[in-house]
Each structure stands twice: as structure tokens, then as C-alpha cells.
Amino acid sequence: MSATVYDGKALVAKISRRVIREAQRLRKRHHIEVGLGLLLITGDQVAMADSGKIVSLAEQADIKVHIERVARRNVARRFYPTLEEYAASPFIQGIYIQLPLPTEIVPLADVMRRLPPEKDVAGLHFVNRGMSTYARHEVTGSVQPPEILAACEALIECGFEIRSGNIVVVGSKATSGLVKLLAGYLYDRGSNVRLLRYASIESESDAVKTQRLKSLDDEKPKESPIINPQGEAVIAWANHPGWLTRARLSPQSTVIDLGYRFERGRVSGDCDFPSVSQSARIITPVPGGVRNIAHAMVLSNLIDLIKMQMEKREEVDGKVLKRRFNQ
Question: For residues 5 and 277, what is the distance between their CA atoms, to the nearest angstrom?
């Protein structure tokens, strides 16, 4: 039985309608134009395609996008000055820095000094990352990375019960920070989360292969280890194409593929899609799927940031008026 492929298009449309509605309310109530500053270092084809999709969604919502495409050789001359300009501009309420960043020429510490946490729509800033580790009732105003929000929304749309549900999250060294945030976000919402390292799965599989080579008897070799023996939902985010096969999954699993790798002219996810789609209950495709939802979540974060900024401004103005009239 083939799996149901969840492409997320309906959810993207739903989020876009909310963004359009909220942007119109902000214009009417606060008389502001919603603006997004987008910074992209050219050279990565996947990053360039992602930024183009965000711009397209923003245009549909009548959100003004100020986009700066910077060549690697011009980073010092254009990247930092543009980021500082976006940070100071009253017409730009949110800043999105397209990842991945070449940290060898753009150190994160230099970016953080120039990126205001209150304008960080990607949850990239150290302050926002730190606030994300606290429970929801302990802090307010934290910004979650769009990929994390997209993965959780995809699970809900696929009929998975977040509260008290069982989930296995697989990450690698490259994605460990975001994977830990994702696990914490799910745990805070009542899920039972188990984290697995991609390296440990692969080393266990290699051990099985070695045993097969050394075995001289006719015994049936052991299969690759199943990562969700209890039928848990699986979120794969290792960025290693095709490692998640049918043999590593329990039948009728819910599989959310967050992996993303561009090689040899094509984009691949963590799932070996042809084999996994034959046994899973629901699977998200790559390209598309959760990635498209994350693009919409960037704009949703922008709206939420503006609303928080307006609430703080109204609170400050209210206190000033009370002091002025001795109340």
C-alpha cells in the first residue's frame, strides 16, 4: 500500500491567508506598511530558490520585500552595511538572513552584533535561540525557527496527535542545534521525544554489514535496525540523502522529511522516497513539502514580530500618558 504524500500546499495557502488578513489589519490600525529585509549571499542554488519563493509569497500578501543579493567577494563591502541599514530602517520590521551562511567569511558573532533580536524572523539570533529553550509559560515573545514551526504544523495536518504522541527525531552534526530546539519544542507541547544521531545509526548499520562479510554460515543476516520500533512518527533532519529506507521504518509510519541536499543538479531529502513511500502511512516530499511550509512561516513570524512591537509601543505610550496626566 502506497503512502499518502503530504505536499503542504493547503497549509501554505492557509498560512498565506492569515498573513494577508493580519497585514491588512496592521495597515488599518497602525497605518504602517509591512516590510521585510532579505539578505542573501549568492552562489548556493538552493538558497537562491528559497529566497525567491519567500519573495513570491510576500508579494501575494502585499508585503514590501527589500532584497539584497551579495556576491561572496563583496561581503565586507555590502553585506554588513546592508544589515545595519535594515536594522535601523523603520520601514523594515523583520530581517531574514538566508541560510546557509559561509561562516568562514561571515562569522556568526559579527552577524549577531548587527541583527536586532526583535527583527529576527528566522529565530537565528543567540537571544531568540536561548529563549526558545524555555517553556512557553516562562517567556513571551520568543521567535521559533520557521523549519521547526513548519514540521510541527505538518505533523498536526497529517493527523498526528502532538500532545502525548511519540516521535523519533534524527539529526546530524550539521543540524544538531536546530534538532535540539525542535525536540524541546515538541516536548513542551506534550510529545514524548527520542533523539537519535545519524552517525550512530550509520555506524550500527556498518557493524551489521561487517558481520555479514565475516559470517561463513548460512544463517539469515540481521536487517538494518528499525529506528521506530513502536511505530513512532519520524522526523528526519540529517541532510544525508536517501539514508532513511523502508528497512529502517516500522510499517505505516508518519515520516516528516526535513533533510535537504543539492547534489549533481538535483535536490534530495533524507528519505529514499521510492522505498519509504511503499510502507509509510504519510510522507512529506523533497523538494516541496515542509520546506514550502517553512517559507510561509517566515512571513507568519514577521507578522507576529510586528504585533509584539506594536504591543510594546502601545504599552510605553500608555505609561507616558499616565505620567503626563498624573494617573
Answer: 8
